[in-house]
Specification:
Elements: H1 2-44, E1 59-65, H2 72-80, E2 87-93, H3 100-110, E3 115-122, E4 127-128, H4 139-147, E5 155-158, E6 163-164, H5 169-173, E7 182-193, H6 196-220, E8 230-233, H7 234-239, H8 242-246, H9 252-262, E9 266-278, H10 283-300, H11 302-306, H12 313-324, H13 328-352, H14 356-361, H15 365-379, E10 384-387, E11 390-394, E12 400-402
Parallel strand pairs: 1-2, 1-5, 2-3, 7-9
Antiparallel strand pairs: 3-4, 5-8, 6-9, 7-8, 10-11, 11-12
Amino acid sequence: MLASDALLENRSSVLLGLALAPSLLITVTAIVYYLLALSAAVRFLQPAPPPNRRFEPPVTIVKPLHGVEPSTDEALSSFCELTYPCLQIIFAVRSAADPAVALVEQLIRRYPERDLALVISDHRDGTTHGGANHGGANPKVNNMAHALAQAKHSILVFADSDIWVAPDYLHRVVQPLQDPGVGLVTTMYRTRPATWIAAFEALATSTEFFPSVLVARQLEGMAFAFGATIVIRRRVLDGFGGLPLVSHYLADDFKLGQCTARSGFQVVLSEHVVDHALRTASFREMLQHQLRWARGNRFSRPWGTLGLVFTYGTLSSFVVLLLAGATSPAVALLLLTWGLRYALGWVVGVRLLQDAAAMRLLWLAPVRDLVSALVWLVSWFGADVTWGGRRLILTSGGRIRESRS
């Protein structure tokens, strides 16, 4: 009996060790990651020089639209009120029946001094009134591709419809283009949440996602972009195949940055931060958003997505505490890990981005990490995503096709 008890105790010790070792590894790695992210964020916080007002190249802004939200008018108006001398704005709408058409027509009447244009395209078959054909499965990119036929200028700006900007936005985001080696400029964003669940979703963006962006920027350089703002030279875009090339991908913004970097041009992360509207109405909708983003990342950057497991230090340190008991080393490890996680969330989410969700809900960061970790885990099983009421299948490299089921 005593020998049996000893054997069971030895087996329990082995199993405990097997469970404790990976948790310790993840926790220690997460601590290193938090310190690296804090360093990257502090370096990025250095004040930027004032914009050179003599550098004002003509710009065409392309705004893809689909439907109207309560905040859409205000968001689009912020672009019409930019203090920039030579500016064209093209609003691209998928269908003449879209309520966005009436809103754009109002804007054209409200801002007669602005060079505003409306392009209506049929996103189903990829044709426009001009007869151009772009057959990708990404309707937003098809919209933008059709609009480029009306673009007058060689500096292009793509910005999602739910983005607000300050009057000096263009002056700031075009500054890196003074260097001819820069091909693309992109920006981070802070969220204006319309609901508490939207704020909870946004907490992941400001305190998890953008810290990882700053780390990637410091270690590897920028080779990706964000749909909140993409400033790109027309010759760079045309050089790697243009928008039709990225219209086959879910993460079109990521692909634009990747193609620019692979073409030998620099991608720059601007110090300017824009505002983003988020109206997530339910936990289910939030999970759909997050799963689409996670699966898109998995197919676009599989190794980078796999490495995210080493950023969930709040969870792994808690597991260590449960397995090792409330010993002094386990408690100290948990306090250090959680302290660094909160510090990182404050520096990036509150100090750098000035994000409302981070200011209100930073205390929920460990809960947000738990949800993110579960979404990350589920993202490795299956290849389908829901986007705009459509079910899409992801394939190698992040390409998408319509689901037949």
